[in-house]
Amino acid sequence: MAGAILSGIAVSTGIAIGPCLFLKQETQNLRHSLVPLDQVEQEVRRLEQAIDKAADSFEAARLTLHPGQKLQWDLLTSQLMICRDSKLGGSAARSIREQRMNAEWALEECVTRLADTFSRLSSPYIRERIDDVRLVANRIQARLANAASYPRPEKGGSIILAPDLTPADLAAFPGGHLTAFAVEQGGPTSHIGILARGLRTPALVGVLGLSEKAPQAREAIVDGLHGRLLLDPDPEEVAVYLALRERLTEYEKRVRADAALPAETVDGERVDILANLESGGEITDMRSCGAEGAGLVRTEFSYIARTALPEEDDLYKEYMDMARSVYPHKIAFRTFDAGGDKIIGSRKGPLEKNPALGLRGIRFSLHHQDMFRSQLRAILRAGVMGNAALIFPLISGLEELKLAKSLLNEAKQELGAEKIPYARDLPLGIMVELPSTVLISDILAREVDFFSIGTNDLTQYSLGVDRDNRQVEYLTRAIHPAIVRSIKLVVDNAHAAGIPVCVCGELAADLYCLPLLIGMRVDEISLAPQSIPTVKHLIRKMRASNCREMLREALSAPGGAMIDNMARQALYSSFPEDSDFFACRPDADIA
Ligand code: PEP
Ligand code: MG
Question: Is residue 355 within 8 Å of residue 340, measured between CB atoms?
């Protein structure tokens, strides 16, 4: 009997068909009981065995990774170390012995205690590790309950369905065992989507009703084009999707074959297409996708995967390796952007009531200057390759930018005094992600070498829509005129000051927005490698003069729906042979 069809937001394209696993939250319904005195040692052994099994699962997952999956390797190593750390097991065992708590209860108590201690530490980096501790404890709890919550996925891979997944959860799946995933939480620019694209895994977020309908499902189809999840599909649905998947594969092969060609419109306007990277492991993929450099390296990803704060030399080595691999193309390192929906902000805790408006981006770095200084020095040193650039995230105004620049200058002076080679003229850019930055972009343009527009945050802060909140996601479905006007203003101010502009939020991969960006004459577009071949392919079919006409209409449009319809029509009528393979908006119908 056929099951349900649920709609969600496609965050990573592709079609997956096959067996599925539902991951329930292990901490629900934990059993609390007092252990009889004569069974205390037995209970401690039960705990130790669960810890061993959980450690084995981290170890096994680690062994299945391929060399490019450095981020996952580091995350799993960190989780393995926490699992084996006596602070967790030892203190839970003490609670069993001294207070006769059962193992589940003792473990939960221990995590609560650790969370409390961590939350009082001044280093946000250490505070954020509590989420890893929670994940490890959950994994041990699952072993204690003998729960099927983390059953081994099928050899050929499984589709994972869950109320929510963290990046650490994703990393814990053995390489090749995750064919796709769908979660109930999250919005189109959530962190988890960014990772899914990096992993080239079809993915849906914000799938309403998933927790209710998915637990019994055995098979599923994840449609990462139209944002659909089909549970226990019938044979006809499977046949339709097998055919669509085949056509999609064919299409991707075709556009990939031309990926090395420049993105130049029919009437001769060129835009450079670069890649957004989360780790060095993606560089090979980026090259084969036709990226002409790395427009944005989200350096915070390499911090989360470590068990201790990285030293300047570790960072230098990492950045240097990346700069060397990308050479002679450009690589723009963005300094650590924590907070908001990012790593630290996503870690629950009584840190900030409103993390998206709190200590994130450059504010975080300016509050933790030692960490910032090591990173600046590492990037400056990697700059000797001659192809690196530096970006400050979430700059809100001139004073903040000047302060960050003064720390950059200090780092340069220190390196000079220590006779360590560094790039004296490392190009400096800022992320334009806040309405305040947009409005004074004429002033800020005089202070930097380039702008990088982060449309994920620009949308979040301009429309007041949490990028991770499914309930308000509908407000971002259409292209809001305020966003079009903001980008246009920034591009015009940058060009008037003679500096280039890169657009590097998810909007850059939104095919409805692409003609508008071309119409504005943005200099660079930086996006997930996965999207690059299609974007280049379409730009080569576009006419810049038509894009400009469309932009004119969009700039005077009163509402987003109008712009969206216009963009949709233009795209579907101009490129009918490609239109089946555009990732659709959540409410769009299957073609
Ligand atoms: C953005 O905000 O659009 C951006 C590119 O940065 P991130 O998604 O990493 O916040
Ligand atoms: Mg951002």
Answer: yes
Residue carrying structure tokens 């609390």: 32
| Ligand 2 centroid to residue 473 C-alpha, Å | 17
Is 550 near ligand 1, meaning CB less than 6 Å away? Answer: no
Q: State pLDDT tens for residues 244-268.
A: 999 999 999 999 999 999 999 999 9
Ligand 2: centre distance to CA 452 (Å): 10
Using the mean position of ligand 1's atoms as its centre, give its distance from the Cα of residue 38 in Å. Answer: 56
Which domains does the chain show, CATH number per domain? 4-24+150-238 (3.50.30.10), 37-144 (1.10.274.10), 267-581 (3.20.20.60)
- Any idea which ligand is nearest the CA of 504? 1
Q: For residue 388, give the 3-state DSSP assignment.
A: strand
* Rounded (to 5) percent helix, strand, coil in the chain: 50, 15, 35
> Ligand 1 center to residue 328 CA distance, Å?
25
> What long-range pairs does 58-65 form, CB within 8 A, spacing at least 24?
58/83, 58/136, 58/139, 58/172, 60/174, 61/171, 61/172, 61/173, 61/174, 61/175, 63/174, 64/174, 64/175, 64/176, 64/177, 65/174, 65/175
191 is a catalytic site residue: yes
| b/e 559-575 (16+ beta carbons within 10 angstroms → b) | ebebbbebbbebbeeeb
Establish whether 110 is a catalytic residue. no
The CB of 187 under 6 Å from ligand 1? The reply is: no
Q: pLDDT tens-digit profile of 376-419?
A: 999 999 999 999 999 999 999 999 999 999 999 999 999 999 99
* Minimal-distance CA residue to ligand 1 atom 9: 298
Report how far Cα 392 is from the mean position of its chain's Cα atoms.
Answer: 18
- pTM (two decimals): 0.79
Question: CA 237 to CA 475: how far, in whole Å?
Answer: 31
Q: Is 338 in the pocket of ligand 1 (CB under 6 A)?
A: no
Q: Whose CA is nearest to atom 6 of ligand 1?
A: 454
| Residue 454 beta carbon below 6 angstroms from any ligand 1 atom | yes
- Listed as own residue / partner, the contacts of 317-324 with beta carbons closer than 8 Å and 24 or more positions apart are 318/280, 318/378, 319/378, 319/379, 319/381, 319/382, 319/388, 320/381, 320/382, 320/385, 321/280, 322/277, 322/280, 322/283, 322/294, 322/297, 322/382, 323/382, 323/383, 323/385, 323/387, 323/388, 324/385
**Cα of 438 from ligand 2 centre, angstroms:** 14
Cβ of 433 below 6 Å from ligand 1: yes
pLDDT bin (cut points 50, 70, 90) of residue 204 is very high
Whether 224 is in the pocket of ligand 1, judged by its Cβ within 6 Å, is no
Ligand 1, atom 8, lies closest to the CA of 456
Q: Which ligand lies nearest the alpha carbon of 394?
A: 2
